[in-house]
Protein: Ribonuclease P protein component
Organism: Phormidesmis priestleyi ULC007
Amino acid sequence: MALSKPNRLKHRKDFSRVYQHGLRRNSPNLTLRALHGSKFFAKKSLPEGFSDLEPQVPSQIGISISLKVSKRAVVRNRIKRQIRAALRQLLPRLTAGWKLVIIVRPQAVECDYFQFLQELEQLLLDAEVLNGN
């Protein structure tokens, strides 16, 4: 099951902007690139005095996994499914307005869901993207 549409980072230019300007946090199996959306992403222009009424843009997430991780699409897709499942569990705790790219490293082939969940949570805490706790 995929992430909901508002939470997907889809366009190449958005991925590129996060890669170029975002902060980086590393773990043994994953790398997180994070960029707060208010810095580089265009907002709809509102009349003066209405900026407080602007709705919060939900955080958007993209997953990048290369052929270096595995030549087999079945393995790469399994890893993406596990990461998306872990992200769905963490999604309610994410601060709004962030653009995130999760990059999978080749060592991740041997990981299971709980290890991905633990590493993602730690990466998001280090980047100060998670609310509370």
About this structure: The mean pLDDT is 87. The radius of gyration is 15 Å.
